[in-house]
């Protein structure tokens, strides 16, 4: 009987930790958004202040290793990042990383990824 209680308690704690929003796990000043792509992949966009710049991290997780994606990141409509990225083991994900100048006013950051083979798309938007 006590073994069942331990298993139930463990499951409850694990469920509680999994329900913590991504913004709660970010460090002070970080802004994090998550979402789903047009297929089965998910994305996460994190923007962090860094000495007058923005550190932008755009992650796509498809759970499939070896997929090639075209990734573009724009700041107020200006293309700042344009590269091919490939999902890697063990998770089947990639992260695009870019430092950008913090412009006057709101920076509207749009990160977009398109799977070269399947055409699946991921679009993340964030205003900071």
Characterization of this structure:
The protein is 16% helix and 51% strand. The chain is globular and about 40 Å long. A hairpin with a 2-residue loop joins β2 and β3. The protein has one domain: C2 domain (Immunoglobulin-like, Sandwich). It has a 4-stranded antiparallel sheet with strand order 1-2-3-6, with no helix packed on it. The chain has a 4-stranded antiparallel sheet with strand order 5-4-7-8, with no helix packed on it. The longest helix is centred in the first third of the chain and has 17 residues. It is an alpha+beta fold and 128 residues long.
Mind summarizing the main beta sheet? 4 strands, antiparallel
Low-confidence stretches: 4-24
CATH class bucket: Mainly Beta
Looking at the overall shape, the CATH architecture is: Sandwich
Strand ordering within the main sheet:
1-2-3-6
Estimated share of beta-strand residues = over 45%
* Mass-distribution shape: globular
For this entry, give a set of tags.
128 residues; Immunoglobulin-like; 2 helices
Describe the structure concisely for a colleague.
With 128 residues, the protein is α+β, with helices and mostly antiparallel strands.
Topology readout:
Layout: H1 2-18, H2 22-25, E1 31-36, E2 42-50, E3 53-61, E4 68-75, E5 78-86, E6 93-101, E7 108-115, E8 121-127
Antiparallel strand pairs: 1-2, 2-3, 3-6, 4-5, 4-7, 7-8
């Amino acid at each position: 009987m006590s073994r069942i209680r331990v298993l139930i308690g463990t499951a409850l704690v694990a469920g509680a930790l999994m329900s913590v929003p991504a913004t709660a796990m970010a460090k002070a000043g970080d802004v994090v958004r998550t979402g789903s792509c047009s297929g089965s992949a998910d994305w996460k966009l994190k923007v962090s202040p860094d000495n007058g710049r923005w550190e932008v991290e755009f992650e796509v997780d498809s759970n499939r290793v070896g997929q090639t994606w075209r990734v573009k990141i724009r700041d107020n409509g200006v293309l700042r990042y344009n590269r091919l990225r490939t999902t890697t083991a063990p998770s089947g994900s990639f992260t695009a990383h870019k430092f950008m100048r913090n412009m006057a006013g709101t920076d509207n950051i749009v990160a977009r990824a398109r799977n070269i083979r399947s055409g699946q798309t991921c679009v993340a938007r964030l205003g900071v």
